[in-house]
């Protein structure tokens, strides 16, 4: 494998691991917002922003965490046949089908960028009384999707490398 | 292209894509985004992202990561060990008693959490090794844990019923109460099966030897204290919600925090535990969320291309069926799809199609929600695709093979189908409690 | 004949409501179009979430939209006047009168001409805006701290009285009342409360309203609209008018009938003197909105002139 590709795959892995490790703690932010919401509602006046803010955090959580979750191999597959194939067949099939996954992520990103452009151009605000600007969360979403896209591309190269007998990540010769 | 053609094409492509073994969300997302691009025209190119905004606004989804976190936290909190010791001693003398106790444990875990993940984690780490050590039949115990943990989505709280409620526009409180008796009935049926089976074949589940269960009554009673903490958690989470003090999403945060509190009380909460729990939570949450994201897109594209209309006409007009026949057809198609498909994807894609039909045929949607949930439980356990199967495979010791796991679910799936039939024939099993409580 | 022209139209109303407020007119359109054109009707958030609806129409994902300007956060300054602009109208006939005879139509055309890709077509009136709540409201103090589903601009206004406005997808409202995310709804009159099932999840209906009629519009993707042959454009205009007309009598009859004969909601009122403070506050709110742009100032001036003229005209326009 060319050095550039090896570097790319390793770099993407490290980056997503770092981003994901930060994103995974957003669960406490969600928890905090909602606990604050129930306390303020019970004892004081309810806040106008809690539910929407929690939703923003939820979206950031799973999109920014996406790439890392792929590294953790958290995404289920239907393995009726897949499970019984040899590792080589699996890699071969993955090399092809991951391209389709990449297509999906690309379309996701395409729509995200378009929607973000709109938000920036018109200063889009959420249609709520709190009316936060939508551009920041949309930008975060695009970053998350982009990182997922990079991770999928890295997975493609990783499989391709293994098919040709090298594990890019470990540098091991598995031919 | 006709609507029927589009429906057929999209579904069959999705099936093929799933069979390639690509990640489920990728398989579904690809078909959705591809169909939008090809068949919708340029406007379709943004449907994939549009689904992410839909997901954002779907507020009950906030409960998903929080319940998952809670499940993992509970399994590490030490609560389960105490409970298990209690059941162990109290049920031990019975043939198959430990398996019966495991079902009891699962019911209590189910009452504290809205998914089956928690039950699976606890079952596989605490109950399974113990049962195997005691000479229980591995196929039997593997089945017990999978079936027992699936009660997590039927006994309140339940994330599946929340999502169903959002699509069917039914009150979550009623749905949850609707799941209480069917959940307990299923548990009772599991227990009956275990006891009968072990009576006939005592080697499947040997009773505890006398010396082990010889314990003064006062000691035995003391063990019951294990139930206190779960009761408190249940009250804080489900109780406060049903009383209207906390809202739904708030209650899931309360639940998550109380599970953490329980671990802290037991002195088990530390940095390492938090980190590993948070990491596992991210993995499972991302898996669900990305599937929902792709499925929302699939559903909207399917709908926008007119395929939903085709299916509705098919069921209502073309097949010429009566209401009950349609209902049974739907249940059968759910069970069939549940073998191959993720239940969340199924809910997002298929339920918006089926539920209005069920409603328009005059059936009660609370009752149907319970039927739907039992179907999901079955889907969790039927090969080739089922979450409990996956989790079991990931967590089971190497002595338990894939074939063992597949074989283990057979009797329990049969019992669940029986339970499904029972609730279908006697809707009051599901509807009596919610109607009683909400009749005021 | 060739292939029929196909449009996807998404209304911001949910299915139960759309059954009345738009579906009959679309069915009639499809029949009259005689195979030349077919409009497929989709409901709230069905294909695209409401927040993304304007963008979706601009990009051609959706061909046409029925909504108020406010709910889809239309990127024009006058969008605040869509939906329920507080105390802008007293009767539902005020809306078409203002648009067709007092110059709002021209202002709307001007505003939307500045936005690429979307053509504003026509505005019409819906129902008045009342509170439907779990607990009774007998004074302004009772509004404090209530989490209420309402329109964005109305919500901003109501927050001055301690209301906590919440925005959720329309179809989720009924369940959100039951899951405790909401204490009430300030989104419609009593006809809708009964029609869409909200009367089943609330107990009280406040007879005071913050607006006499909701104003909502039809929009289309400009390219799609421009390429329609003249006769189909005409037919679509007739279709919009028929929908506007139906809502005029459906709500008017429904509001009175359900207040007097409905059994699911108890009526309560805030005394007139107390409610007058809300109206006074609304006029301050108007001035704040007017200060935001010249076009907004023109709209507010028209609203003021119109209301003054109604006062002057006396009965049946005004009784006091
Ligand atoms: Na549960
Ligand atoms: Na299955």
Contiguous low-pLDDT stretches of chain A (5 residues minimum) are none
Strand content of chain C: 15-25%
Helix and strand element order of chain C: EHHEHEHHEEEHEHEHEEHHEHH
Protein chains sharing the most extensive interface? A-B, 62 and 66 residues
Record field, number of beta strands of chain A? 2
Distance between the termini of chain A: 13 Å
Main location (chain A): membrane
Protein name (chain A): TRAP transporter small permease protein
Family (chain A): Belongs to the TRAP transporter small permease family.
InterPro entries (chain A): DctQ, TRAP_DctQ
Explain the overall architecture.
- The complex is a heterotrimer of chains A (175), B (440) and C (320).
- Chain A is mainly alpha-helical and 175 residues long.
- Chain A has helices at 3-23, 26-43, 50-64, 66-71, 87-121, 135-163, and strands at 166-167, 172-173.
- In chain A, β1 (166-167) and β2 form a beta hairpin.
- The mean pLDDT of chain A is 91.
- Helices cover 78% and strands 0% of the residues of chain B.
- Chain B contains 22 helices and no strands.
- Chain B has helices at residues 3-19, 24-40, 47-57, 63-76, 79-91, 97-112, 117-133, 138-150, 159-168, 172-200, 210-213, 217-223, 228-242, 248-265, 271-304, 307-318, 323-340, 343-360, 365-381, 387-395, 402-425, 428-438.
- In chain B, α17 runs antiparallel to α18 and α18 packs antiparallel against α19 (365-381).
- The longest helix of chain B has 34 residues, at 271-304.
- Chain B is globular.
- Chain C is α/β, with parallel strands linked by helices and 320 residues long.
- Helix content of chain C is 42%, strand content 17%.
- The longest helix of chain C has 32 residues, at 230-261.
- Chains in contact: A-B, A-C, B-C.
- The interface between A and B is large, with 62 and 66 residues.
- One sodium ion binds at residues 338-339, 379, 382, 385-386 of chain B.
- One sodium ion binds next to loops of chain B.
